[in-house]
Design a protein that fits this description.
424 residues, alpha/beta, Rossmann fold, 6-stranded mixed β-sheet, 4-stranded parallel β-sheet, 15 helices, globular, binds pyridoxal-5'-phosphate
């Protein structure tokens, strides 16, 4: 199989993306096409595609057919939306952070995905893919997970829809996110420890892909972000677009239009893609924030092929995939979803990073000013905002929408250890 790790040679050194900055201007004649459907080869510009072994080609094609037909079916959409409303708690609120705004000198609005059932935006995607699994007549769901949030969400959807569930998780992540491992087991899922490679998210994806090759007739692989082969990056973005649609309406009501900046953290990039899709046609500046140790769209990222997609990846000069390193399990991934690579290349979004130390500061700042303990992942978005307001990059008085993709409960113990705090 091309994945895991078939890095593209010859493209090394192409760092145009890192240099491309968002203009913040609507892209005349282009905005309408951005964040639409990928082309017939499943590509966003030159990124994406379907680099899968022969055995998975029919499964990807079947999935695309099922998704196209379901997404065009008002009854399917109604079922998806009513589960999100009655079970997951949507719409999520938009919270104006008065204290933090005063502190930073900009008007900060949080899109509260942390208030969803299971504690993050991941539920939006698994409800969609769970329903599709039923449509395809399959009885088994598999998933990879890093922070455990997508694993918990998948196990939840499996319980709700009566599906068997196996979640692959790196051993390192299992230790960091012990509580989520327990939650998945409580929900009836089997959690399989992955002991290969860096024993984190990348290796969990490899194992899930191996399982899928062997079980494709009965199993749907519920990919957790806007990554993997076509149609996953497009389909997952569509299931997460509810974040941007709601936020756009909420901003319209509160601000009378779009905010100046829209900021979200980027692991694979699903909460960011869902949020950006609501604002790509406006003048808002779109900013994705990666972990400094996993910034595929930063200076160490080069184009290559991994996990069925062509995108920017952390690689060495021989095309070997480098380990991502972050305190946040959900951002500990050496790649990024292909649509983000495209948005960066055309300059419609820009991608920044935040260090572990900045993230811990930001997490405490939001906790103390607003009484909201964020997950480590969205604390990256806030950490960038803190830096950018201090430097004037985000000018005083700007309006900023920031997606609070998850709540901090899952990280509390980990953060307690990192801060060297005791419980009493
Ligand atoms: C709370 C939270 N936010 C963000 C992410 C990163 O995922 P994505 O970039 O797909 O939104 C994760 C991943 O586990 C997460 O748990």
């Amino acid at each position: 199989m091309t994945a895991p790790g078939g890095a593209e040679t010859g493209a090394k050194g192409d760092r145009r993306l890192a240099a491309a900055g968002a203009t913040g201007e609507p892209l005349a004649g282009r905005a309408g096409q951005l964040m639409g459907e990928p082309d017939e080869r499943g590509r966003f510009g030159s990124f994406g595609g379907g680099y899968v072994p022969e055995a998975l080609v029919p499964a990807c094609q079947e999935l695309e057919r099922a998704f196209r037909s379901a997404w065009a079916d008002p009854a399917f959409k109604q079922r998806y939306r009513s589960i999100l409303a009655d079970y997951a708690g949507r719409p999520s609120p938009l919270t104006e952070c008065h204290n933090l705004s005063k502190h930073l000198g900009v008007r900060v609005l949080l899109k509260r995905e942390d208030l969803n059932h299971t504690g993050s935006h991941k539920i939006n995607n698994v409800v969609g893919q769970g329903l599709l699994t039923l449509e395809m007549g399959k009885g088994r769901l598999i998933a990879e997970t890093g922070a455990g949030q997508h694993g918990v969400a998948t196990a939840t959807a499996a319980a709700l829809f009566g599906l068997e569930c196996v979640v692959y998780m790196g051993e390192v992540d299992m230790a960091r996110q012990e509580l989520n491992v327990f939650r998945m087991r409580l929900l009836g899922a089997e959690v399989r420890a992955v002991r290969s490679g860096s024993r984190t998210l990348k290796d969990a994806v490899n194992e899930a892909l191996r399982d899928w090759v062997a079980s494709v007739s009965s199993t749907h692989y519920c990919v957790g972000s806007v990554m993997g082969p076509h149609p996953f990056p497009w389909m997952v973005r569509e299931f997460q677009a509810v974040i941007g649609e709601e936020a756009r309406e909420q901003c319209e009501r509160l601000l009378g239009g779009a905010p100046d900046f829209v900021v979200a953290c980027v692991g694979g990039g699903s909460n960011a893609a869902g949020t950006f899709s609501g604002f790509v046609g406006t003048g808002a500046r779109l900013v994705g924030v990666e972990a400094a140790g996993g910034a595929a769209l930063g200076p160490k990222g080069v184009p290559g092929v991994l996990h069925g997609m062509r995108s920017f990846l952390l690689q060495d000069e021989f095309g070997q995939i480098l380990e991502a390193e972050s305190i946040s399990a959900g951002l500990d991934y050496p790649g990024v979803g292909p649509e983000h690579a495209h948005l960066a290349e055309v300059g419609r979004a820009r991608y920044e990073s935040a260090t572990d130390a900045e993230v811990l500061e930001a997490l405490q700042l939001l906790s103390r000013t607003e009484g909201i303990i964020p997950a480590l992942e969205p604390a990256h978005a806030l950490a960038w905002l803190v830096r950018a307001t201090a430097s004037g990059e985000v000018p005083a008085g700007s309006t900023v929408l920031l997606t609070m993709s998850g709540r901090g409960d899952k990280d509390a113990e980990h953060v307690m250890r990192l801060l060297g705090m005791r419980s009493k």
